[in-house]
Amino acid sequence: MLNPDQFTQHVNANGGASYRISDNAVPSSGFMVSRSGHEQIVSSPLHPDHVKSFLNEHVKGSTGDPYLGAWVHNQKTYLDLSDQYTHKSSAILAGKKNNQLAIYDVGNDKEIKVRSDQS
Q: Do the Cβ atoms of 80 and 38 come closer than 8 Å?
């Protein structure tokens, strides 16, 4: 199970992280896509209590084997549930379906903009 203290330290030290909730695995490849409706913004620095609260609110009833993602921007930390995709095309489609502005390319450490179906 995800260790909130370890996750928090990683995010605060590196500006972001993705950990699989079931086993703390960190992705080294693929594409991460946030799940619509499972996002939260908290003040930085991130605290383990933020992580515990997010997990309690968003993981119950979720399907699959999601990741907890976080990134820091403008003194705020963005938390989300996300899924890992092997293929870029599948990730982009999932990003559009979930009304995301972008997906994350783990292997190349970069954001890929996607257009929302709502645009």
A: yes
